[in-house]
Amino acid sequence: MKKRTVILAIFDVLLAVTAYFYATLMRFGLDTAAWYPASIMVVHAATLAAALVLASYFTELYNVNIRLGRTGLILRVSLSVALTFLLLSSTYYVLPEYLLSRGVLFHTLLMFALCQYVWHRYADRLMRMSGLRSRCLILGVGDRAVKMAETIAEHSDCCKLVGFVNPNGYNLEIPADQVVGPVANLPEIAAAQRVACIIVALSERRGVLPVKELLHCRFAGVEVLDAISFYERVTGRLLVTDINPAWFIYSGGFSINSFVRFHKRLLDVVLATAGLLFTAPVLPLIALAIRLDSNGDVFFTQTRVGENGKPFKLYKFRSMRQDAEVVSGAVWSPEDDPRITTVGRFLRKSRLDELPQLFNVLRGEMSLVGPRPERPEFVSSLEEEIPYYSKRHVLKPGITGWAQVMYPYGASVEDSLVKLKYDLYYIKNFSLFFDIRIIVDTIKVVLFGRGGR
Fold it and tell me: Which of 3, 36, 310, 444 has the fewest C-beta atoms under 10 angstroms from its C-beta?
């Protein structure tokens, strides 16, 4: 989890607790203890803080990839407070003994909303001023070093580049004024620049890795990461184009055994069954809307590549014209695809077209979470153009996945490469908790209509 996210959430908890106690004091004065025992007040404060942080998470106030302007932040904070009110109303309905007075609740939410707006509005500026970002030093001056510098620039909320160290005999791919010294002075440079992390970004490490200097820095408490590990940590994806087979063999992760698969399957069956029962009243309405909107079948089936490369039939609600690929054949869906029907456009944006895939999950052909299944026509060409593409098939494909919540709809080889980076990161770091996080993030994506096409 990003440092910025953690700091935002911690301060939001403190703001929520402070707002509650201040609102209680305003409402009851010094006689607060006569109205609420200390144990009840602790429960109230904890419930309010949990609801407010959860609502803030769902409304993406902690999303480091979104930069909100003044109006956008006001809307998100307002939506978060409204969602908090709904969450607390449901909680108090189930547990009436912990009911909070309307006056205290109103003043707490109002005060928190004002404070949260101010805090989130100036949080980035305060974090930069306070030096909370990790100071990074790049060992290398070639193409890989440039790529790491670009990565740091894209994630400036958590990292700050202090400069490059030039290994002996390397040609500069960066401006000379950004080189802070030679490799022989690496320990002194790291100490003087208060470096927290050294990123080893050498194009070829054999024979040129400054072991003595790096060991000195490591024993001085400076973290040393190779470029691939740093990229994985910061971006949440793998640097596929720079990875060799040995890295996969010796790296950690990829702990997908029969025990884990069994519990993942159990979670799939339980949630898919619950999802079908919950959406059962909506399914006939969707089918009727499709029939009224255009001629053709309600359901759409298509061959996709599943686990271990085995093909299967994927089910969806039809969102395109019946003859969408008669002339063009298998093609990616472009932006504003004219083949999509009016109802189909809404179904795609809301992801309702994918509800029938819950039957694929129950049949064991898909999982709720996993790499998105691709068409065989595309897979054959993508495996030739993109290294390690076939490795995404070691797990069952998913209705949603890490790539789906982190990257918009893909419609090119370049997009497929980026999504593969996320898919392999998911496979490497797979856990049931990771699956649950992706499911929660998927709900956010659907609520804000991101990524559909």
Answer: 310
